[in-house]
Structures are given as C-alpha cells and as structure tokens.
Queue: 2 jobs
Job 1
Amino acid sequence: MIQGTTSNAGKSTLVAGLCRALARRGYRVAPFKPQNMALNSAVTADGGEIGRAQALQAQACGLQPHTDMNPILIKPNSDCGSQIIVQGKVARELNASEYHAYKPIAMEAVLDSYHRLAQQYEVILIEGAGSPAEINLREGDIANMGFAEAVNCPVIIVADIDPGGVFAHIVGTQTLLSETERARTLGYIINRFRGDYGLLKPGVDWLEERTGKRVFATLPYLQGLHLDAEDAVNGAQELGNDTLLRVVVPRLPRISNHTDFDPLRLHPAIDLQFVHQGQPIPAADLILLPGSKSVRSDLEFLRQNGWPEAIQRHLRYGGKLLGICGGYQMLGETIDDPYGIESAAGASPGLGLLPLSTRLERKKELSRVEARLLLDEQPVAVKGYEIHSGVTRLTQSLAPLLDAPGRDSGAISIDRQVAGCYLHGLFDQPEAIKQISRWVNGEGCLGVDIERIREQQLERLADLLEQSLDIDALMAKLNSFAQ
C-alpha cells in the first residue's frame, strides 16, 4: 500500500508507474483505492463510476477499469455535503459527520471489493488517501492504516520534497502512527527531488537512522508529465509559435471532469485558459462551459462573476459557445432539482441560450457512448462517456449536435453559435477537435492523440521508476512481509 505524508505527495502517480512497471515484468497486477474523494471520475466497463486516477492506473496495468478498484468514491457537492458512490453506484447523500458514522458500512464494501480483486491478481497496488497521520480521522479509518491493518498489508510512505519540509513530514508522520502501524511501514520514498543528490544524502542517512526505516528511492522531479489529474485543474501549457484557436473555460467551484480539456491544453496551437474567480474574462474564439457537480450553485457563481454578460458580448462578436454535461444544462432555460440531488431542492433559471429544460432525477446515467459529431457535413466518429443525473428535454425543435441513437443527442442553436451535449471525452478524438475548430473559426486544427500521449507518459514514468527504484528488492521485501 502506498500512503503519503500529505495530499499531493505523488501517491496516484507512483501507483500508476508501479502498475506499468510490474505489468511490463509480467505480473498480474491491479490497482485499488479503498476511498477516494474526487470530482474527476470515469465510467467503468461494468457500468459504474470510479475515480479517474484508478481508471488511469487500470490502463497502466493493461486492464479495463472496474468498480472494485475504487469501491468508495466521495463526490463533494457543497462545502459540507457529498454524494457517496459505493461500488460504482450512488448510495446516498451525506454530510461529514453522517459519513463518519457510515464508515463501518463503507468498510464492508471496501473489503468485499478488495478480496474479490485479490482472488484474481497476484499483486494489488493499493493507494491511500491524504495522510495516515490525520489524528482526527483515525477512528474508523478505511482509507489508510485502518484498511492496511484490516487486510494485513505492508505500507510504503511517499513524501514530496519539492515544497520543503520532507524530513519533518516523514518523522512527524511516523511519530503519530501507532506501534503496529509503524511495524507494517517498510520504508519511504522521497518524491520530486531536484538538485545535487550528494547534498541530500546526509539527510537521507540521518532519516534512515532516526526512523529505522529504509528510504527505497529518491525520485527526481519529472518535468512535463502529462497524466490525468485527480483533483487540481492543470492549466500548464507549452504553446507553439502559431495560435489557431483561443479557448476560455470558467474555473467553476465544483468543476468536474476537467480532464475533458487536456487534449486542448496539450495542443501547441490551442491557447486554453481557465479563468478563476475575480480574473478578467479574455477575448476568445470559443467559450467552454465545463461539467459541474453542483450546476445551480456554479451557475450562480457565473452570474456573480459577470459571465452572462461576457458570453453575450462574445456571441455578438461571432464567438462560439459549447457546454459539456453540466455546462450543457446551464445553456437551457431552467434547471429543476426537486429532490435536492445536488443542493437544496428548487429550480433555477439557466442562461436561456438554448430552448431546453433539465430536471435532476434520482437515477444517475452512467454509460460509455459511441456517436457521430454533426458540426459539419462530414460526421466524425466520437466516443466518450456520460455521468449525469439530469434529464434534458428540448422545448422546441433544434438540430442535434450528435448522432447518438437512443441517447440525448445534444443540440445546436439555429444560428449555430451555441451548442451542448452530455458527452465527456469529446476532445479525445483528433478529428473531433478538427471539426470543432472548423466550426469555431474555420481553421480545421487537427487535435492531438491523447490516448497515445497517455501511453507514452505511462511508459516514461515506468522507465523512471526502473532507473530510480530497485523494484526487485522492493518486491522481495514485500514478499517477505507476506510470509
């Protein structure tokens, strides 16, 4: 089990890299994260929903993602309330204290999924959540040491040296662990080091003597690693000399599945900007309204930050507007949440840019989808996934954005400036980006192959681990613990 001294220590990336490295060596390996809190999720082969990091780790193993790989997914829809996904399906809405009381039930699902995976694979690479040293969360823990003790698995703790304080993080974490938890901790990995290792080595020697634990590796800072982010929106870009398309996305408080836009961010000729609260809204060719876990509250955020006026100005000057999932719902006339699925029960007016209305229902749509994009006379095959509670209906006839038999086909306005659909992953197809860019400004900018990029980055990550970490020694240590 890989745990971390902090959030963002590199657990997800390390597990993905180890998954690929072990798979290349012929191990039957699978990822597992007992409990994940994230708004970036993926639809599994068995029709459920898991954290996007575990879907990427499954790809690293050469597997289709499965709900057993992340049995508890917590999707916050407010500062104190979350939707709880259990083994891929919505179970209930709980606040923090209610979830704390629910943990024993959640642990049953966690152990059920883990044991099912353990019967199929010889290696299970488990990812913890946050830090095991959060003393206020120790009681009933299912995400870190509580789970490790329940299944008697060894633990390696990773710490991020880049922001500083790595020795304090490691020693402090070990100090706050119980005696049995320290005993199952085999050692540490220091992540994101840059500089002269000779200057770091005395500190590593001191750390091993102080803790009695081995530092298995010091991993270098890996520049330009392009893998799906679990939580934080990644806005880093390397633009080329010629910008063919300018795209703006509002950074919504409850933005979900923002990895939709990675193929745009990684394109050298597409300038993608996430606009945060209080920032000026720049001129653009295309405004994208992203998915949201709390559509009505994020719509209010847009109103408070001047987006409706900016969108109207953008459209007057010939700009295009595209909404994905929650952004598609925002484009309509009304959003009705009679059961309080995402927030307090009630209805809100939409932006009124497409003649459609949305009603949030208790049943959640989770589907992998194949369709054709209809923005011009030559339809383009696209595939992706849908994750939404809303049922959207047109209030007057419009042309569909997609040819998707039996599914919501989205819509495009009569003047062809405003469009929307439920399909996540739309930009993953290079030809889809080409058609969308032709619709926006006539440029026909062929997209990047995001799947090929993911594979290249997983290979790069595994190569780094092979160079920096003695994987044979690590596996021997793990096997000796099991015996």
Job 2
Amino acid sequence: MPSFLITGSSRGLGLTLVTELLKDPENKVIATARNTKAAEGLQTLAAKFPPDRLVLVDLDVSSQTSIEAAAAEVSRILPDGLDNLINNAGVNDQALVPFEQVDLEAFRKEIDFTLVGTILVLRAFLPLVRKSRTKKVLQLSSVLGSIEQAAWTPGLTPTYSVAKAALNMLIRKWGASLKSEAIITLLIHPGWIKATDIGYAIAPYMEKYVPNLKSISPEEAAAGVVQVLNDATLDVTGSFFNYDGTTIPW
C-alpha cells in the first residue's frame, strides 16, 4: 500500500490533495496540519475513511519540536518507511506589497517558514523516505519563483517570489545530492487556484494584467499534481514541473 504524507492539509490545495489521493483504495494517506482536530475538512474525511487509509497527525511547519514529534509518530505508523513526502505548506502575507513598503519582519517570517521550515521537514522525514520502496519528495512551489519569468509580472508577490526562488534552489541542490540514493525530488507549480488563500490574494493583479490566464479548480490542480508525482522517475529528479506535466524554466 503506497504511503503519502501531506503538510498543510487543513484546507485549500492540501485538503484537496488528501481527497484526491484517497480516491485510490490502495493509498494510505497521512494528513498533517497545525491542529487537525480543528480542521473541519480533515475531520469530515476521517469520519469516512478507516485508519488504515487515513491518519491525521498534528504538524506545525514553523515549529521544530512539532515537526520532530510528528516524524516520530509517523515512524510508528509506517515502520517500512514513507513512500511519498508532499510538502505543501506555504504562506503569502504580502501578495501585492511593493518592495519599498515590505514589512521586513513579516518577510523574515515568510523566509523562515518557507526555507527553514522546509529544511526541518525534510531532515525529519528523509530517514523514513529512505526506508521506503518509492522514495519520492514533492515540494509544492510556484512559477512566481522562476527567475527567468520574473520580469513578466514585476508587481506580483515580490517577497513570495523571492522566497520561492530560494526554495527552488534548495530543492534543486538537495535533490541532486539525494539522486545517488535513488530518491526522486520534484518541484511542482499547481497552477493559479483562485479558490485558495494565496490565489485569492493575487486575483486583482491577475485579472487586470494577465486576463488570459484563467484560474483552475483545486480539484484539477490536485489531480495534475498527483499524476506528475506518480509518473515521476529518477530520470526527471530535480525538475520543476507545471501541474499539467510541462516543465517550467528556472
């Protein structure tokens, strides 16, 4: 039974990824969030699926103690290792704030959450990934972290874009070192999903300056992300994909 762990799964794309993965009766899904008991969507799913299919685990990506406790709990749940680690948790608190007006303390927190949080999550769960058969690490990212495409949308998510560009380098470099262990690493842009917190925050800009790019539903995004993950082989490790399977320039 393939195993999947998703961070940031209380709502939005994370919750939809959990729902999508549960469509396959062979999958075992571990859904994590800061407080799973307060996550109505997760609780609804937990009432529908038995514990051999869905397990809820508290995990706060901003807390090293919480991450390490979650990893210890998951190691007991999955003694044979974790096949697929999906790091989805993200933050975008200053979506349309220009660099001259950026709250630097908020920016520091965003960098800490995006980069340090990711390092802590991977450090904690890589031992479990190494024990598994599939050995895949999927990091949700954004096309806004593409340096090549940055000039196309100069006023859109300045701090978020910087954080995502750094995140892309982190996974690209780390993934290169993990390839020798047959661990597959991927970066995936899930598309513009207006129905999520981040997607809604950038909607005014997108509709004014990029009107031809239509938003997609969380369900379409999740289905695409899962397909890319399932199709990935070691030959494409370290790649930056769109949710539809096309590659995105760095």
